[in-house]
Design a protein that fits this description.
Blueprint lengths: L5 E5 L4 E7 L6 E8 L3 H15 L3 E6 L9 H16 L4 E5 L3 H11 L4 H28 L1
Parallel strand pairs: 1-4, 4-5
Antiparallel strand pairs: 1-2, 2-3
Helix pairs in contact: 1-2, 3-4
């Protein structure tokens, strides 16, 4: 299996976390956040970052409800993906991101990062968790 450069996205209304895959496609690495207070602005920033890193795939976390239903946030992420698709020809896939932000907060808390300092990194870490989960799932599918 040839590794692809992948951009992972954790969409948020104030900040959208980003992560990218390493050259071998083994690990997700956080690359910060983009600010976008509307879907169009966020989509433009995501596409810009995807092109900067030479992404061959964009994986966006889909925040399903705990009972597997799709709520308003899933609709926003679906619309975000549609807008990204109009701005570039990079394929888009989704990953069920339930609890990734909760997990990111727990990781940062366990690591000793103070609550007031988490705001700037939690979204990027959530994007790492989304992308890592996606890559791990893909490896298991191809085995």
């Amino acid at each position: 299996m040839v590794a692809k450069k992948i951009l992972g996205v954790d969409y948020g209304e104030a900040r959208t976390g980003l992560a990218y895959s390493d050259a071998l496609g083994l690990y997700a690495v956080g690359m910060g956040n983009v600010k976008g207070y509307n879907l169009e602005k966020a989509a433009e920033e995501i596409v810009k970052k995807a092109k900067e890193i030479g992404a061959e795939l964009i994986v966006i976390g889909k925040p399903f409800n705990m009972n597997f239903t799709a709520g308003e946030k899933v609709e926003k992420v679906t619309e975000l993906a549609r807008i990204i698709g109009t701005l570039c020809d990079i394929p888009i896939d989704f990953y069920d991101e339930r609890l990734t932000t909760v997990s990111a907060h727990q990781i940062l808390q366990t690591s000793g990062v103070r609550a007031k300092n988490r705001k700037g990194v939690v979204d990027s870490l959530a994007a790492e968790l989304i992308l890592q989960g996606y890559m791990d799932r893909q490896k298991n599918i191809t085995k």
